[in-house]
Design brief:
Elements: H1 6-19, H2 29-37, E1 46-49, E2 60-62, E3 81-86, H3 91-102, E4 108-113, H4 114-119, E5 124-129, H5 130-136
Parallel strand pairs: 1-2, 1-3, 3-4
Antiparallel strand pairs: 4-5
Amino acid sequence: MITANYNQDYNIFKSIANRSSTKIYPAYGRKLEEMRRNGKIPAKRIIVTTDWNIGKLYPRIIVTPDTLITCLRFNYLSGLHVQIVYFDHDGSILAQLTNEILAIQPASLAVFNLDAVKRGEPAFKLIFSQSVMEAAA
């Protein structure tokens, strides 16, 4: 699915890609960047997770808790809908991961705590939504 703002999204993607030249890809990140470079975007939100068994039916990237978040490339997430799915034990990297993804200007960013679901607590939190911000302006 191609968005109406494809050219604008791609220009943001290109400018951010140029700033990310010394960083490495998380698992599946290179595949998503190649798709973006070929003018395609995923029809579903991108799942960013720390667990290899989560999000298999979605386009996803895997960020392991032992990875230095600031060394990872996230530029290909620019203009896309992104959801970070994590467990309580991943909390130590959540703030940094959220900040790194926000820096590349996703269309939206949400977090989802799987352990909170097990406890019957609220698990979903919308961090940023471009459309909500535009509606409020």
